[in-house]
Specification:
Blueprint: E1 6-10, H1 37-40, H2 56-71, H3 81-94, E2 103-106, E3 110-114, E4 117-121, E5 125-129, E6 131-139, H4 152-167, E7 174-182, E8 185-193, H5 195-203, E9 211-216, E10 226-227, H6 231-250
Parallel strand pairs: 1-9, 6-7
Antiparallel strand pairs: 2-5, 3-4, 5-6, 7-8, 8-9, 8-10
Helix pairs in contact: 2-3
Protein name: 11351_t:CDS:1
Length: 256
């Protein structure tokens, strides 16, 4: 990160990262205020016995969430598709990022060129609206993440590689949102990358220009993220996704 003259910084409030828009047509039946991590950890958990969950898609969401919670402490190398299924459900069935005017790309390669050197990146999910607008990076297990940056160096490479895709033909200021998912914990990021940074980056590692990526919640710790397994965290994450969607639809925060 130092070589790319980039730093991560805690946002002072949620509106510095998540668009401050109303958020319309939020599927509130996904909030499930009575569903907790203790319930999801039960080996005999059965979604059909939970009061108030009758929608088949919400039931599927809860089943995916249960599998992620149960998978959190297992050894690295076990089935890692559980987090993919959960995130895919949130991006498609819940937030509808897979329909026009959006596009959803899954595990596609992006390339960043710095001088004559190339770096490849492959985010788990990319949302685009004509251009890349948001990426999702996953670490399926809490055991995968290593201090001190907990995967933020990887995220920086993926943000820049996706941003580079946007500026290959014409260099413009870029705003790219990112989501880090570690087990059931979610952190949001916002990167604003000016034209001057892209121009210097094309010539080589930036010396004069720098960028700051804002993080919410602020502390860089896997357990400090918003927890989908708890009512407050789940409501916050799902509401944020709808606000991001609506902001892009309104043209606010749109990558251009």
């Amino acid at each position: 990160m130092e070589a790319l003259n980039a730093t991560f910084k805690s946002a002072s409030n949620v509106n510095e990262v998540i668009p401050n828009v109303q958020g319309t047509n939020i599927p509130r039946h996904y909030f499930l205020p009575n569903l907790s991590s203790d319930m999801l950890r039960r080996p005999d958990f059965d979604v059909n016995t939970i009061p108030g969950i009758s929608d088949k898609y919400v039931q599927a969401f809860v089943k995916n969430l249960h599998r992620v919670v149960m998978n959190a402490g297992v050894d690295i190398g076990t089935d890692e598709s559980k987090t993919d299924s959960l995130v895919n459900h949130m991006l498609t069935r819940f937030a509808e990022f897979d329909g026009e005017p959006f596009g959803l790309r899954v595990k596609e390669y992006y390339r960043l060129v710095v001088s004559d050197k190339r770096v490849s990146a492959k985010p788990e999910f990319v949302i685009d609206k004509k251009e890349v607008a948001m990426i999702v990076v996953e670490d399926k297990h809490l055991k995968n993440v290593i201090a001190p940056d907990f995967g933020e160096a990887q995220m920086l490479a993926e943000i820049l590689a996706c941003g580079y895709e946007n500026v290959r033909l014409s260099i413009t200021d870029q705003t790219i949102l990112a989501v880090r998912v570690i087990s059931s914990y979610v952190t949001f990021y916002k990167a604003e990358i000016p034209v001057a940074y892209w121009r210097e980056l094309r010539r080589g590692l930036p010396q004069k220009q720098s960028i700051t990526i804002l993080r919410w919640p602020g502390r860089n710790d896997p357990n400090a993220g918003l927890d989908l397994a708890e009512p407050i965290g789940r409501r916050s994450v799902l509401t944020a996704l709808i606000k991001i969607r609506d902001s892009l639809l309104q043209g606010e925060g749109e990558v251009s």
